[in-house]
Amino acid sequence: MRWFEYLFFLSIVLGLAKPVGLYLARVCQRQRTFVDPIFSPIERLLYRLIGVRPEQEMTAGVYICCFLLFGASCTVLLFLVLIFQRWLPGGPANNWLTTPMTLDLAANTAVSFATTTTWQAYGGENTLRYLAQTIGLVSQNFLAGAAGLAVGFAFIRGIARERSATIGNFWADLIRSLLWVLLPLAILGSLVLVAEGVPMNISPYTLAHTLEGGTQNIAQGPVAALEFIRNLGTNGGGFFNANGAHPYANPTPFTNFLGMLAIAVLPASLMITFGRITRNPRAGWLLLTVMVALFTVGLAVCDWAESTPPPHMAGLHVAGGNMEGKEVRFGMGESVLTGVVTSNTSTGSYNSMFDSWQPLGVLAPLTLLLLGEVVFGGLGAGVYSIVMVALVGVFLGGLMVGRTPAYLGKRIGAGETRWIALYTLMTPMVVLLLSGVALITAAGRAGLTTNTGPRGFTEILFAYASCMANNGMTMASLNANSFFYNATTAIAMLAGRYGLAAVALALAGRFAAQGYQPTTTGTLPTDTPTFGVMVFGTILLVGALSFLPALALGPIVEFLRQ
């Protein structure tokens, strides 16, 4: 039954990939779509208001600067909203805001939402006011998601264009991503959530009397405004501390399944967009197939690890798998599916606690985070992440068989190779360095409030891998609300968002300036099943060389000690 659900999910994602991908290609190329009569007047009005001429395109350097400037502006504005939130009108009452919004926590949260990481070192219902959630966090989910999609569009153009000095206009890409993609889908999805029972109000928190005679405070708020866009924009931060495990945020298996589709469909479809714009549809389908293969491997490992009875309960005659930390509303299947989907993308909308998962169950999502956003990935980031790995495969394959290293008609010379190498090494440099600093300092180890040993090591590694992948998931028992973690996780988030994107756009600019080189007998084919196997192997090889020693100290040794 679980595997039927997994296959059903993948079938829907793959079935929607082509129509959605072709639509995104039309949006990227400014071609006519069926929603133009609605959004074109709004687009023209926005251009006049902010003084943008969409026909005036940018070089890769200018595009990067605009992207960085936009991200910095969003970060500063959100920081101000969070710092001054206690003066905002509306609920909840001040006595429910038990977690102080310190300067370092506000800065970390602002960076988190501006980078689509939505790493939350706080509980939303006991930290933020309703207007801070809607004006600050909801708006950033839209803006950061649209900015990421804009970068993805620009990267695809760089691969596709010939002898061009420009790769598009960032502001035009941003507005079209927002109006033509995120806004209409988020409105429809939010209405569905409201119909399924997700609150959308500004009511005071409810005081309920339990059957045992006690009391319970039930948080309210404009939950539906945040819940769908956090998945659609591959952000992930929840209105509640329990995230997708909270019954108000994710009340039914249907809403959980819908949320997973919102996370995966757009990033998967961008591979079809990539093939369409580069005039090589087979290349797009090939990379999507590699993504699905990696997704299936991670799903199989997680399902086996969590469905097998835990070793420490072997003598208790317990039937079934590991239900610790999982929601009985969703069961084993949807918990595993959600864990794998969210760790494959930059959307940490988990509905179970990874700290309660088995060692191999934790190993799969952790490995997917460390590999980067090569499986579906975030909006835009998934495209350049998988293409970068493909370029590594082209280079290695060319060395092995003596073929010219070229991809889709673009030569990979010494300059391009340096950018590819920098991109490939950035994640292990940042994640391993920050993890090492956390492990050797008292401030870093102070966050381990529950576990030490291999599990404690895994918690720290998981945190920085999640931040670098702009994912935001945590293993829960790591207390990250300290100056040390607020500062160091922000470094990882900034590197994962802006460092990797800047390198990808710089490489796209170099490719755009090249002319097209026809495929010859001396060129390695890059749209064949053999190349797909090579890309798959390259991902595993690069991941193993970078992170296998760290994984051996964490979940692997924990599994062997069971």
Beta-strand residue fraction: under 5%
Helix content: 55-70%
User: How widely separated are the two ends?
Assistant: 28 Å
Total number of helices: 17
What tags apply to this protein structure?
single chain, 562 residues, mainly alpha, two-stranded antiparallel ribbon, 17 helices
Q: Can you walk me through this structure?
A:
- It is a single chain.
- The strands form two sheets. A two-stranded antiparallel ribbon has the order 1-2. Strands 3-4 form a two-stranded antiparallel sheet.
- The chain contains 17 helices and four strands.
- The chain starts with a helix and ends with a helix.
- The protein is globular and about 80 Å long.
- The chain has a domain at 281-560.
- It is mainly alpha-helical and 562 residues long.
- β3 and β4 form a beta hairpin.
